[in-house]
Amino acid sequence: MLKKSVSIFLVVMLLLTMGLSASAVGDSQDKTEPYDPNPSVRPCTIFGDDESWKAISADGRGYKADAKLFIDYPDGKTRQGTGFLYGDHAMGTAAHCLYDGRYGGKAKSIKVVLPHKTVVVDSSKLRYPSQWSAGSSSTVAGDWRYDYGTITLPAGTASEGYFGLYTNGAKVGDTCLVSGYRAGEYKARISRDKIRSVGPYDLEFRHDILSGQSGAPIYDDDYYVVGIFNYNAGFATHLKDTDEGENSGAKMTPAVFNFFKAIL
After folding, report:
1. How many angstroms separate the Cα of 195 from the Cα of each of 25, 175, 256?
2. Which residues have CB under 8 Å from 2's CB, separation 6+?
3. Which CATH number characterizes residue 126's domain?
4. CA-to-CA distance for 76 and 13, rounded, in angstroms?
5. Is there a domain that residue 106 lies in?
6. Each residue of 160-218: pLDDT tens digit?
7. Distance separating alpha carbons of residues 89 and 114, to the nearest angstrom
8. Of residues 96, 114, 123, 98, the one with CA closest to residue 231
9. How many structural domains does the chain have?
């Protein structure tokens, strides 16, 4: 009788442990887990006057999982942006890095340059919301509420690690980081600051971000992406009560999260 009681107790404990483990890894519908071969790596906390620093390998996914994008548009010119890995073959970025009516519409091809690998993808690998398209002869990039998109890469591209996604994970006062490649620079830069406001579609924050970092991930200390950098507040006239010097990005809403997950 004692042996039977002990066996039942062990089975119950095993089931409870399995349940706790499942909840601990964040397998709910609003999260995807970040992956890193070296989980001990965390971002540096180096602060300069411009609140940014050049990423090095010790910065983990802020260095390993960000890519510099060289974007060939139909107008014949090449422009630069940033993308970030969030799965084995999945990359997120801003929609205007994939389609911009001012430059002829959908990008013809994009060279994706990661620290460990370079991949060239054609237009068939690019996805953005249908609401973003503004017509190939349009003088506007698209509807700002839909400025997010994905790039499908070859399997195994993210062998060095990738970010997780977190739906509605951004809260006012939370610290977030932004890592991306400035135009003309070949090392990613990371900045760190608090989230100043959260709207239905956007986040606002104060980081030192320049052209070329569009599409960069906005993420927390656990490498969960809560938004995608795409705007400068000086041009984001749709935002309310923005102070000079603030930047903004697309919020990781359930719609954005589901759009990104579709290619995982």
Report:
1. 25, 6, 19
2. none
3. 2.40.10.10
4. 64
5. yes
6. 899 999 999 999 999 999 999 988 888 899 888 899 889 999 888 776 666 778 899 99
7. 13
8. 96
9. 2
Please indicate whether residue 135 or residue 66 has the higher confidence score (pLDDT): 66
> Can you say how many angstroms the Cα of residue 42 is from the centroid of all Cα atoms in its chain?
17
Q: Which tokens go with 143?
A: 């509807």
The candidate with the shortest Cα–Cα distance to 58, out of 44, 37, 45, 48, is 44
Domain check: are 174 and 142 in the same one?
no
SS3 annotation, 118-141: EEEEEHHHEECCCCCCCCCCCCCC
Q: What tokens appear for 153 in the block?
A: 């890469």
pTM for this one? 0.79
- Residue 252 pLDDT level (bands cut at 50, 70, 90): very high
- Residue 134 maps to a domain: yes
8 A C-beta contact, residue 181 and residue 82? yes
DSSP-assigned letters across all residues of the chain: -HHHHHHHHHHHHHHHHHHHHHHHTT-STTEE--B-SSTT--------TTSEEE--GGGTHHHHSEEEEEEE-TTS-EEEEEEEE-SSSEEEE-GGGTEEGGGTEE-SEEEEE-SS-EEEEEGGGEE--TTT---TT-SS---GGG--EEEE--TTTTTT-B-EEETT---TT-EEEEEEPPTT-SS-EEEEEEEEEE-SSEEEE-----TT-TT-EEE-TT-EEEEEEEEETTT-TTSSSPPTT-EEEEE--HHHHHHHHTT-
185 shares its domain with 218: yes
Q: Are 92 and 148 in contact (CB under 8 A)?
A: yes
Contact between residue 172 and residue 220 where contact means Cβ atoms under 8 Å apart: no
Determine, yes or no, domain membership for 4: no
